[in-house]
Design the sequence.
């Protein structure tokens, strides 16, 4: 693919679809658990279970969709066709996710929201899995991918900022919110999330070398899937992704409870969420500079730890906290949280290259499917843990317009979930980020080994390239496709 297509216009066109990814995650993380507990009157533990069931479903759907996209052939490519297919389901399912049509029974509401969440999760995956696989099929260059990912994260953060600041304006004061107001809000944002996907469809492309490649049989794809689970770099990526995003999701899910119950300032939701997201956008160029100069994984242990300072301060704040202290928490949290999305999504496009090293095929769909599942699963774990923990600490659910005074134990639970749990997840992400080894130099050596194998049919004899491949994969060179002669393919490699 010619570098002439690597334009700013194509970068923004590619990024447009992540209005759904950034916006929907932010909005549901911020409001969905609170909506189920305070508007629909569902106990916090059951509300957490609703989300968790959806994430177990994602464990099946996301990798399966990834394999399906790898096998798909159409006039619109193997990825982009799914962007069209998923638009209407996203609009319908997201709207239904916030309205129970007057159901009164808590048990029936519980079942209804499980079904609606499953439908939305599936619709979301139909878009997000092929979207996550699209960039590796569009762009071959290591640094160019980082440029596309940076614009994607910028658009995602802008969408997230809109999605956490505008809904409270539509919903009105906490005490006056009704199911109807949530229905109106969800309909507006369903369109906001879905329509930009059309921009991505019309402005992106797929590398014809991948589109015309052999359609692998299902057993071969399953062997690829098994190989991916042994890929050291991928496992490190998964650990960083889960821990960094879970920290953000727990923090976001408890924000509404922290403001209303601890600070007793529920009206600050728009300000707090807006400042946190805006800071994340402003620090994006710094993360991008760090990534280009030192490595895409480096912000995981340079800017991400800043979040810990903000969370530590937040633990000690109460109803008498001044606005400057609250804003300081937002700024520090935003500075650190910006790396939560930046690092995983800049690392993701390089993972299919490691798959080619190991299996001989460019399994973008498989890695995108698993990455999408990791993202949604971390969100589900976060909300599930939050719901269960609040319930264990004795947090009392309410219905629309009702004000409940929580016990000191319940308030302690809110403090712990808002600060301590995200701190622990963040520390784990920092540690794993320091262990990540697929930097620019290692990537170049891996690609050189792959090119040698493609051109000659024989594995490279360069000790430096061999060592780089083994370090990246965590496997012996002879056990990978790149280390085996064409005449003697690995039993794990596709025929």
Sequence:
């Amino acid at each position: 693919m010619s570098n002439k297509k690597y334009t700013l216009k194509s970068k923004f066109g590619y990024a447009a679809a992540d209005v759904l990814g950034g916006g929907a995650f932010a909005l549901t993380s911020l409001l969905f658990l609170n909506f189920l507990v305070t508007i629909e009157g569902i106990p916090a533990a059951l509300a957490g279970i609703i989300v968790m069931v959806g994430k177990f479903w994602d464990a099946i759907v996301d990798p399966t969709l990834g394999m399906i996209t790898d096998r798909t052939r159409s006039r619109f490519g193997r990825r982009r066709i799914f962007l069209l297919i998923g638009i209407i389901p996203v609009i319908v399912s997201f709207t239904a996710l916030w309205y129970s049509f007057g159901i009164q029974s808590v048990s029936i509401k519980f079942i209804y929201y499980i079904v609606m969440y499953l439908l939305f999760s599936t619709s979301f995956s139909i878009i997000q899995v092929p979207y996550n696989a699209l960039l590796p099929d569009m762009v071959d260059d290591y640094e160019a991918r980082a440029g596309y990912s940076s614009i994607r994260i910028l658009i995602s953060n802008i969408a997230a900022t809109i999605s956490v600041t505008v809904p409270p304006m539509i919903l009105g004061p906490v005490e006056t919110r009704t199911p109807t107001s949530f229905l109106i809000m969800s309909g507006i944002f369903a369109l906001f999330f879905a329509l930009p996907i059309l921009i991505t469809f019309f402005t992106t492309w797929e590398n014809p070398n991948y589109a015309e490649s052999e359609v692998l049989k299902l057993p071969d794809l399953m062997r690829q899937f098994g190989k991916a689970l042994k890929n050291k770099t991928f496992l490190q990526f998964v650990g960083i992704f889960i821990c960094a995003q879970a920290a953000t999701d727990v923090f976001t899910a408890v924000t509404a409870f922290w403001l209303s119950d601890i600070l007793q300032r529920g009206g600050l939701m728009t300000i707090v969420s807006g400042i946190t997201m805006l800071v994340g956008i402003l620090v994006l160029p710094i993360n991008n500079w760090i990534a280009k100069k030192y490595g895409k994984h480096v912000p995981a242990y340079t800017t991400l730890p800043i979040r810990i300072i903000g969370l530590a301060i937040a633990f000690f704040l109460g109803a008498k906290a001044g606005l400057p202290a609250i804003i300081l928490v937002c700024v520090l949290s935003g500075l650190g949280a910006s790396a939560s999305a930046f690092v995983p999504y800049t690392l993701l496009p390089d993972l299919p290259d490691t798959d080619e090293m190991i299996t001989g095929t460019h399994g973008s769909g498989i890695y995108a499917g698993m990455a999408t599942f990791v993202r949604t699963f971390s969100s589900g774990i976060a909300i599930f843990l939050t719901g269960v923990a609040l319930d264990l600490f004795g947090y009392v659910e309410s219905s629309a317009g009702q004000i409940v005074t929580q016990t000191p134990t319940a308030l302690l639970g809110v403090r712990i979930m808002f600060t301590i749990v995200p701190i622990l997840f963040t520390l784990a992400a920092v540690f794993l980020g320091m262990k990540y080894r697929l930097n620019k130099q290692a990537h170049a050596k891996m690609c050189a080994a792959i090119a040698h194998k493609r051109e000659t049919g024989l594995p490279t004899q360069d000790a430096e390239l061999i060592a780089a491949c083994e370090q990246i994969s965590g496997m012996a060179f002879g056990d990978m496709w790149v280390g085996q002669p064409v005449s003697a393919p690995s039993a794990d490699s596709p025929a």
